[in-house]
Design a protein that fits this description.
alpha/beta, 6-stranded mixed beta sheet, disordered C terminus, Rossmann fold, 14 helices, 44% helix, two-stranded antiparallel ribbon, binds zinc ion, 313 residues
Length: 313
Amino acid sequence: MGWSSESDSSEFYAFEPERFLIPPMEGFLRRMFGAPWGLILVSGPANINLGTIFSFLANFSLQQSYYSEISTESNDFEQLEKEKRKLVTIEEVIHEAKQVLQSSDTEDGADDPEEREWRSHFRRNSDIIFIKHLSPDVVSTAVENALTGNLVAAGIRAESSFTALKHLQELVPREHLVAASLMGIIALNTVNRICPHCKIRIEHQLTNDDMILFGQTENAVHSHAGAGCKECNGTGYKGRILIHEGFETSSKIRTKIMQSLPLRQLRILAKREGMETLLDAAWSLVNAGETTLDEVTRIAEATDPGGNDPKTQ
Ligand SMILES: [Zn+2]
């Protein structure tokens, strides 16, 4: 057992890079991992295996630096290999710092097989620091590194990028540090997939409240649902589909984070700047006949960051 198998239910959905690495996510990731420094959060609820995503992102960042080197100059591939970014884990950074400060003979987590696996995955072959879980223990080291020339990618358990941002604000109560360090958030979630064996078409009239909640302008919706059959044990669903969103800290958003703008307003601003949210992703799966309106409602409620300042809650 290790970090790559932390969730038993992960077998019910597949991480498909070709469904993930599409616009606007592709450009977003290129900007995130092309940045010289800063903090990138990778979030998902507990039923998502962030280890798989981290492996993908580690490979993506290596390729990214590889291709950018090629496009700039030199055809010296040996040199390019050498210049590939180094990957280190926060445990190594802390360990190094400890060694400098004191010659400690015990290594935190060395006996933990999960830690050993994590270390072996992200040995030093790139200069990005990957943090499996942004806990109170490592958050100050992470932010410090992000602000002093390192690119740091950190995992956080949250339903959406805005609830992830809320957690970050709780972990780092100084808004200027959050605003200055945060580059962006990659947020993942899943919706249940309609069972293909009992799928039926449903005409639905949205209420005004639902239209506002889903951000829709038409109230007539052609949707689908599973009637329930032997294949899906009567649930109407079979498997899950991974959905994602990318939240980017633009200069305007950075200023608003500094001013402690409530998260719900921050979301409106991000939408105006062109962000495609998890709710948009869930809605497009309703249009594609892959998930239900119930699932969209669940995502809408789960990803709502709340209207109040997180620090006063
Ligand atoms: Zn069925």
